[in-house]
Design goal:
By secondary structure, the protein is an all-alpha fold. It is globular and about 60 Å long. The relative contact order is 0.12.
């Protein structure tokens, strides 16, 4: 009962902050579409595969490993060892992120010209590189908090990051326009850096503040040492390396997918400007609408993984099966409701918010994947919580293979519709594979 209440409480906190953050981001994207244009938004989206790849290599796997390891340590009453895990992961991730920053700056021209196919991305990549160290600090501390099922730091840091990013972009655009100039999309990328910087300083200050007050009896400092570092690495690396490899390989595939879309649209007889505009509408307008309600399922997924790991440690198999069934059913019902909503209101949303009929058409088509998209985040979180990270990679790789196939074979023949059909098929495939893996795993556990 305590585990369920902690999931519900944490999910509610993360959902409220997630909705508020997405609400802010939603209108921020409307502002971006009017201020920088569809082509500018397309350039903005074009650099994100590079960011996702660097983040996966330096931080994502370590954050997940910290969360799962800390959850197991806390369930066994080993809080000092949980601190060692955090310190080890934080140092390791920060070191990797600094290397990533230097590498990205040195090779920005090559990546922009040869991989992204647009020289205008070079400046954006250099600016974006500064987010890496701050993102590492922010993510590792949030991973530790999720492992302890404490959502205050992650929730507030998300809101602080979003607020700092949006207000800074508003401010700089206002100043530039007052001076008679035109703001470029580089201003929006600079806002990303400032948002991550502010969020990192907040998480550091909030996490270490209790340790600076020795009069508080419940604030016990864990002294870090070389032995603690080696012990932390010994526990983190076996889990984080597969996770990191999985995320890097998946993001490589996602990067191939994202970078290839504008080129394949040109093969469909669209100009470079038209291809970037269509790409910007899809990724900067339509998909954020579809993903807006997923704040709920993402919150459930974040709280679910450490809970699954804890239940698995305590060997309560029936509780594990019941929890998975209830969470999966709730996410699927939410997805069905959102599917109906977007089918009825897609055209209205596209014209009213973005002044784009194309965005409305995309929203209606993508609405059909809501039941599977929202359920998949919970299902994959369960698989990670069970420690089956290899299965997660294979499932995601299968879905991405279908999407990449739709890019290379669907878009040249059917235009952007071919890619949208590929998105729907990939989400359905992921759901089927994930359900099969979890069912087999839970059935095997019950026979022990």
């Amino acid at each position: 009962m305590a585990k369920k209440s902690s999931i519900i409480r944490g999910t509610l906190i993360l959902t409220m902050t997630g909705f508020l953050s997405r609400f802010m981001g939603f209108f921020y994207r409307i502002f971006m579409s009017h201020s920088f244009g569809e082509e500018g938004v397309g350039l903005y989206q074009l650099i994100f595969p590079v960011y996702a790849l660097c983040y996966s290599l330096t931080t994502a796997g370590i954050e997940t490993a910290i969360s799962r390891t800390v959850a197991c340590k806390i369930s066994l009453g080993k809080e000092q060892e949980a601190h060692h895990v955090l310190y080890t992961g934080l140092l390791f991730s920060f070191f990797l992120s600094c290397i990533s920053t230097i590498f990205l700056q040195d090779h920005a021209a090559y990546i922009a010209n040869q991989l992204l196919g647009d020289a205008r991305c070079q400046q954006l990549l250099v600016i974006l590189s500064y987010t890496m160290p701050f993102s590492a600090v922010h993510s590792c501390i949030c991973g530790y908090s999720f492992g302890k099922k404490q959502t205050k730091i992650p929730a507030l840091s998300q809101l602080i990051e979003q607020t700092a990013r949006i207000t800074s972009v508003f401010f700089f655009c206002f100043v530039i326009q007052k001076q008679g100039g035109t703001a470029s999309i580089a201003v929006a990328v600079g806002g990303l850096v400032l948002g991550e910087m502010v969020s990192a300083f907040y998480t550091l200050h909030t996490f270490f503040r209790p340790f600076s007050r020795p009069q508080k009896k419940n604030a016990t400092r864990s002294h870090f040492s070389l032995s603690g570092l080696f012990c932390g690495l010994k526990e983190l690396l076996p889990l984080s390396l597969p996770l990191t490899a999985n995320r890097v390989l998946l993001n490589l595939l996602q990067s191939i997918e994202a970078i290839s879309i504008p080129g394949k649209l040109r093969q469909y007889h669209l100009s470079t400007s038209e291809a970037l505009s269509l790409y910007g509408v899809l990724n900067g307008m339509a998909l954020p609408c579809i993903l807006f309600p997923s704040a709920i399922t993402n919150s459930v997924s974040v709280m679910l993984m450490p809970t699954i790991a804890e239940i698995q440690t305590s060997k309560t198999k029936k509780e594990l099966a019941d929890l998975i069934k209830k969470v999966t059913a709730a996410c699927f019902i939410l997805g069905l409701s959102c599917c109906l909503f977007f089918l009825l209101t897609g055209s209205f949303i596209g014209m009213t918010l973005f002044n784009s009929r194309t965005a409305g058409k995309f929203i209606i088509t993508l609405a059909w994947m809501c039941p599977f998209l929202y359920t998949n985040s919970a299902l994959l979180s369960v698989i990670n919580g069970l420690g089956m990270t290899g299965s997660t990679f294979l499932i995601n790789a299968a879905g991405l293979a279908l999407r990449i196939g739709s890019v290379f074979y669907g878009i040249p023949r059917f235009g952007i519709r071919g890619y949208l059909w590929g998105l729907l098929l990939s989400q359905f495939t992921i759901t089927l594979f994930a359900v099969f893996v979890i069912s087999a795993s839970v059935s095997h556990c019950k026979t022990k």
